[in-house]
Amino acid sequence: MSTGAKTLRWLLAQWSVNLACAMAYRTSFLMQAIFMVLNDILLLFFWWVLLQLVPDIGGWGMADVWLMYGLVAGGFSLVAIFAGNYNRISIIIAEGQLDYYLALPKNVLLHVLVSNTSFSAVGDLVFGLVLGAMGCRALGASFLLFLLFMVTAGSLLCAFSVATNSLAFFLGRSEAISRQMSEALTNFSMYPGTIYQGAARFVVLFLVPAAFMSHIPVETLRSFSSTNVWLILAANVVLWALAIAVFHAGLRRYESGNQVTLRG
Amino acid sequence: MSWSKKWRKYSAVAITAAQSRAAYWQEMGARTFFFAIVLFTFSGLWGRIIGTDGTLAGYSRQQLVWYLTLTEAITLSATSLLQEVEQDVKTGQIAYLLAKPLNYLLYQAAYYFGEMAVTTSLNFLAGGLVAWALVGLPAITLSGLAQALILVVLGAAVRFCLLAAIALLSFFVEESRPFYWIYSKFIFTLGGLFLPIDLYPDFFRRLAALLPFQSITYGPARAFISGDWGQFANSANMALLWCLALTGLLSWEFAKGVKQINVNGG
Amino acid sequence: MLAIRTKNLGKEFWRQKKASGLLGSVRSLYQQDKERVVAVRSLDLEIAAGESVAFIGPNGAGKSTTIKMLTGILHPSYGEAQVLGLTPWQERQRLAFHIGTVFGQKSQLWYHLPPADSFFLLGRIYELDQRTFEQRQAELVERFELKEFFHVPVRKLSLGQRMRAELAAALLHAPQVLFLDEPTIGLDVVARQSMRNLIKEINSLGITVFLTSHDTGDIENLCRRVIMIDNGNLVIDQSINSLKRDHLAAKIIRVRLEHPVEGLPPIDGAQVLKHKGAGLKISLDTKKLSVDELYMRLRQLAPIADITIGDPPLEDIIANIYRHNQGGGEGHELEQEVAQI
User: Fold this and answer.
1) How far apart are CA B115 and CA A94, in angstroms?
2) Mean pLDDT by 10 residues, chain A (264 residues)
């Protein structure tokens, strides 16, 4: 068996065990999935009201908003399903739980990420795909390209969370900071790109890369540009390189159970 | 025991308590950060749609950002009411509290108002600084401020009634969380969290005006930026009416719930 | 062949000094006082394949830190280590295929799932093919008597059952070295006995066992060799028998005479611990007084009906060494504190 096949066999086993775990709380899982979809739909209410008042927001209409929400909800759901620990890494580090993963013969970062699944995110996945299909139809955009951007959006969210969560190696308990940073990313990526001007534009491009998660992809879906596609892919590569570098720099400093100094 | 020993003992208790709230401070910092990001985004959004000098249905960008500052300050103000009451009901602790010479609901209301006073003002202070930096200080009138203050208190009373009614549902259903979730979505939409409800399409505007949610967020924030006495009278009347109605509902629910305990207790 | 070899291995932590009190907490927000804490100091070890070694020391001596360095969990501050010829922190994944770990305080098994599910997942993690996996699993279920609870969620198992399953899980991939960190902690007498038997059996199959424990029963029953560290320093590295010999300046002698006596006249080197009628319990310092001489003195009192000569328990020996070392090294209290965290 090749290494790739072995890894795939392991990942499938991992996700099926995650599923078995989630099934222990079946009812709450269904409830959550339904509520998350309702939540997503209600968020659209605001844009619907606003676009009754003004024709567009810096060139963004309702179909653009659908695409934007589709990308973010879909991308988020992919991360929550396949790499559900993305926003728990800092807690895992600070509590010394990394020992478990370090004692096993797999890539630590990958192993940590895939060891948890939020199955309620299936609701968001369906919602994201439906909105994407609606947006693509309205604008005559390619649904395949939408799917690609959904994956890159999820990948950016995951890489960004890995980078910010790795701060726990250096700062100790910092899960509130990490959580707020990834929430800032999803927040920024759920408003039309055109509202970020000047310094704000710099922030969404280089600090909290929401521009690459939804703003540029939506514009690219509206009017295709291969430069943009490459730009988005490059942003993924750069952010992952950064995230992995930070994580591994931190890993050398990992202090296991002795890290927890908060006693008061 | 000497006085100094007593002093040492109780100050130690106080300090330990303050320290154990470290998580609370972190939470507070995180909430402020979230608040700042929302304001930052919306000042960009309104800037894009309205520009610095224009208006949207009569509202300037500055007014809309300050409107949001107040509605968010109210919505984000944390209260442990829900957990407290739920806990009391589920663990049966409420039976013991009932034996004490105080009214359970009034006791919870007092606690809630104390908490709210602190968290809402702190939130408003933090959010206000951000809003000030983003769009400058609005032309606040003294009457607008007074109106807003009265409506915030009335709105807080309405909010208390709604939250307590939700928490007391634990007498009858296993999970009262979903009801809270629905409540928060109503605040978001029909309470006019992001947009004043007079900007809504006709049907939703009329629906929102009839429901209690707008008394919590829209009423106070609208008064804060406009200071219009006619509007104020309207909002205040509505809030008072809902307070009365919901207090009635709450007392009825409570009485029914307490009977439930007796049944359960055999 | 050497299973484990370390040379000059050391680990230091930088720890934030947390001032006590509210003011201290506030101050530590903007002003960070750091202090260096030595966890392990220049450790040299050589352990042959197939050995069973007890790695002991008081709380905070650096035992867990050493195990974590040897398994690749922690990077050392300096020095070298080789486990099965691999440097743990550089070739962690490769090494992990050949070693097994059981941390008594941390579970490898998924809490809400039955052991069977965790075994299935571990089989995939260790890249076992289906046939080997099924065969190994069947063997382990049999030998560790897991059958009756193999499909019951771990949260419903007793601690003894859980630890048996933990140990079995650590052996699924047929490791050559087994690291056990307090494997019997919290177990009752029967469960502890059964764990010990299993570990002994594992070692008899040629698997190297590296064990830390505070239970001297574990150490005496399972290990030939004992390595003690204290304060990050290697204190003792010898066989348990020679440890006893070296540190046994005293023998415990229980004697029953034919008739009751008034007592033993004071002799240098013999101390009466207990005296009741015809029975005496005496602690004998063999450097000052030989067993033979004491025997003669006792015979002078009365004819001897029964006599046993024994060693003081290992526990006393170890406690004695710990006590002896305490206060010797500087910064000891500091490390005690680290251990509690």
Assistant:
1) 31
2) 89 92 73 82 90 90 95 96 94 88 94 91 93 96 96 97 92 81 91 89 92 96 95 97 96 68 29
